[in-house]
Amino acid sequence: MILNFDKGVYYGLDKVGARIWELLRNPLTVAELRDTIVTEYDVEPDRCEADLQALLSELAEAGLIVVTDARSP
Question: According to DSSP H, which parts of the chain are helical?
């Protein structure tokens, strides 16, 4: 469960989502997140990356994370 204090909204995460949230404590690339999840769970890399992109987009739209381009200085 994630609480956005500014908006007063709760977000529920399943087991994998909670693991991703835990991993996001440190800056990681999408590839690093994907590789960790693929190693820990029975999921195909392409499916994992697509689901991961969707989750990260939702979290960013909600203002819970900031996504940056790793190539940016």
Answer: 15-23, 30-40, 45-61
Q: Is the pLDDT of residue 42 over 60?
A: yes
Spatial separation of the C-alpha atoms in residues 24 and 52, rounded to whole Å: 12
CA distance 34 to 73: 23
pTM confidence score: 0.78
- With contact defined as beta carbons under 8 Å apart, do 36 and 47 qualify? no
Backbone angles phi, psi at 14, to 5 degrees: -80, -175
- Cα separations in angstroms, 12 against 20, 21, 48, 56: 13, 11, 19, 14
Q: Strand, helix or coil at 48? A: helix
- Residue 48 has what pLDDT? 96
CA–centroid distance for 28 within its chain: 10
